[in-house]
């Protein structure tokens, strides 16, 4: 059901564009207004989310660790698994963001007969890394439509990506990789009963949306060609803030643009926000130095808590302690008398 | 806000990266290229050629080079000779004013010219008088009457041009 709802939503978008552009000829709405609105939603939405997260206090230092923490000088500590300084936190975060280290520890649990087996499973990591890196490279590559003259590195990336000169226009390797990654990520949710059980429509929707985005882009490049010069005229109009809509660009281009607009606008309100959320994870962005640096709970800034010493606590509950036959620490009274 | 010394620079970096294309092109007015079109009709419609010419050229390459088929029958039934230099460039003879206009704009670098020689640069310019050539006293201009057409080949070209007048 979740799958069907998400799929219908994405197919509905294609129909919407077909009605809006194909029938009603609303070129400016779909070529300029919606992309601008989506971009602003993305920008303002994500900044709002970041400010909101930064306003949330972190009461405890809850670094997740899986290695020897820094203690005595002759015990070697695990710099990445239990970072002790901000630099080590930076290293761990960088590897997490760029190489998905924590996903590399992914395990699977399977029942074989009546026995439960745990085992290493790198497939999710592989699918995720294929998908994310391809998506990133594709995004950077698209700068060739958003810059003039095109910077050298973007050109170089384009050349490397189409290195094998398969077909014309040359097949991009990242196009193949992102399809492979997406297919795996989707099949995983559909085939694996355990993952299927916990998948919502909001898990399928971004997958179908990105599938639609990739497929419309690939169709446009390799099969139903559109005039790239007019496309760049439109995209350059957008980035130079002098929007114009050249005539004669195929419908599929507007489908592609609508997909990316929806994806971008959906970003701040969905699980996709993990793009910036990863940097705000208290389990990952704090050094594990609890034993050296005292973490002051930010709640205490305005309302300092009243701490009780053991003696004060004992005094408070003295009757209950005595009636329960608990021993009373006499030292508390000695010190009082001395002082 | 907590940790604003880290969060605010982070947000600024994020905004700068996301808006990169806008400030990269700030204040530029980029107009669409206007390639010079020859009179007459092309093998297919203008709209089709604008979007699909590269795929047609690839099809032509396979037909001409691999299958030896030199006749193309267009969608309206007319026949054309298949060839880049003896076909397309008979009308679109100016590479700079036609091909390069849009290719530069869209940052496309077709590899046609790895093998083909565009018509107007058929005559080779003189080589640059590099230090190495001078060192071994190799004459730069070996061919009689070979003169660079556009004077694009550094200082040496200009000297030749002077001689021409």
Automatic annotation (TrEMBL), chain A:
Record flagged with keyword GTP-binding: no
User: Which UniProt keywords are present, listed alphabetically?
Assistant: Cell membrane, Electron transport, Membrane, Oxidoreductase, Transmembrane, Transmembrane helix, Transport
Locations listed in the record: Cell membrane
Q: Please name the source species.
A: Thermosulfurimonas dismutans
Outline the extent of the NarG-like domain: 120-277
The question of whether Aminoacyl-tRNA synthetase is a record keyword is answered with no
One Pfam family from the UniProt entry?
Nitrate_red_gam
TM regions (residue ranges):
7-27, 33-51, 123-143, 163-187, 207-224, 244-267
Q: Superkingdom of the source?
A: Bacteria
The protein's name: Sulfite reduction-associated complex DsrMKJOP protein DsrM
Q: Spell out the GO cellular component terms annotated for this protein, sorted alphabetically and separated by semicolons.
A: plasma membrane
Entry membrane topology: Multi-pass membrane protein
Single GO molecular function: heme binding
Among the record's GO biological process terms, what is one?
anaerobic electron transport chain
InterPro entries, per database record: DsrM (IPR047660), Heme-iron_electron_transfer (IPR051936), NarG-like_domain (IPR023234), NarG-like_sf (IPR036197)
UniProtKB/TrEMBL annotation, chain B:
Q: Which organism is it from?
A: Thermosulfurimonas dismutans
Keyword Transit peptide included in the entry's annotation:
no
Residue ranges annotated as coiled coil are: none
Q: What is this protein called?
A: Sulfite reduction-associated complex DsrMKJOP multiheme protein DsrJ
Q: Which InterPro entries match?
A: DsrJ, Multihaem_cyt_sf
Q: Where is the signal peptide?
A: none
Region (Disordered) residue spans = 145-165
User: What broad taxonomic lineage does this protein's source fall under?
Assistant: Bacteria, Pseudomonadati, Thermodesulfobacteriota, Thermodesulfobacteria, Thermodesulfobacteriales
Tell me which SUPFAM superfamilies the record gives.
Answer: Multiheme cytochromes (SSF48695)
Residue ranges crossing the lipid bilayer per the database entry = 7-24
